[in-house]
Amino acid sequence: MAVLVGKKAPEFQAPAVVNGGEIVENFSLKQYEGKKYVVFFFYPADFTFVCPTEIVAMQDKMEEFEKRNVAVVGASTDQEFSHWKWLQTEKKDGGIKGVKFPLVADSSMTIAKNYDVLAGDFEYDENGKAVFKGVPQAYRGLFLIDKEGIVRHQVVNDMPLGRSVDEVLRMVDALQFFEENGEVCPANWHKGQEALKPTQESIAEYLGKN
Predict the structure, then answer these.
(1) Average pLDDT over the chain, rounded to whole?
(2) Which domains are assigned to the chain?
(3) SS3 labels along 95-163
(4) H or E segment to which residue 22 belongs
(5) d(C-alpha 177, C-alpha 29), whole Å
(6) Are 80 and 18 in contact (CB under 8 A)?
(7) What percent of the chain lies above the pLDDT cut of 70?
(8) What per-residue confidence (pLDDT) applies to 153?
(9) Can you tell me the distance from the alpha carbon of 44 to that of 137, in angstroms, rounded to the nearest whole number?
(10) pLDDT digits over 164-174, tens only?
(11) Residues 91, 56: contact at Cβ < 8 Å?
């Protein structure tokens, strides 16, 4: 798996559904550079089981993301029309109606491939024909991208394993605290807790207290 931390987030232009129902043709993360942090996450497929729990959980915390100047963007290998239909479907019927953040349609699977979260790839058979091996869906990859477009945190879960939105917010807090104060965040750090100056003396003092 590619480690993208410290590197420029792969760029793309793709269809997306925004504001819960508007289809746009050339959505890009470039629009956020210099303005917002981005939480860009992949999920396997629309109209499945774990995926709506994550997406709705993200929407439920949208006020917290907005307080932190973070744009949340989801993506799967479904087409934009599938996203649109899912967004119009009531939650009691397995839908995600009420979700407002963008859902990108990566039907070509190139975005998932460039972020190295695609659960398969094309291979050539004995006749030289391209055949997809694996599952044409994305693993549960999540990337925290700073305002300069650099990936600062990434995590990838297998498809059955849902992610923690609170942990995503914790990582946003840690990154922003470091940027603002120059202090580093120890294990299990949460906003409002003591951090560390990057010196041996500071670390020794912290460990002595804990």
Answers:
(1) 95
(2) 14-161 (3.40.30.10), 164-210 (no CATH)
(3) CCCCCCCCEEECCCCHHHHHCCCEEEEEEECCCCCEEEEEEEEECEEEEEECCCCEEEEEEEECCCCCC
(4) strand 22-27
(5) 23
(6) no
(7) 97
(8) 98
(9) 5
(10) 999 999 999 99
(11) yes
Sign of the Cα torsion 14, 19, 20, 24 reads negative
Q: Which amino acid is at 15?
A: P
Q: Is 185 a catalytic residue?
A: no
The widest CA-to-CA distance across the chain, in whole angstroms, is 66
Instruction: Tell me the pLDDT tens digit for each residue of 86-110.
Output: 999 999 999 999 999 999 999 999 9
d(CA 208, CA 210): 6
CA distance 137 to 158: 11
Terminal Cα distance for the chain, rounded: 35
The residue from 9, 39, 51, 87 that is catalytic is 51
Enumerate the β-bridge partners of residue 38.
71, 145
- pTM here? 0.94
Distance CA 203, CA 158 (A): 34
Task: Give the mean model confidence (pLDDT) for residues 12-35.
Answer: 98
Is residue 71 helix, strand or coil?
Answer: strand
Confidence at residue 209, expressed as pLDDT on a 0 to 100 scale: 76
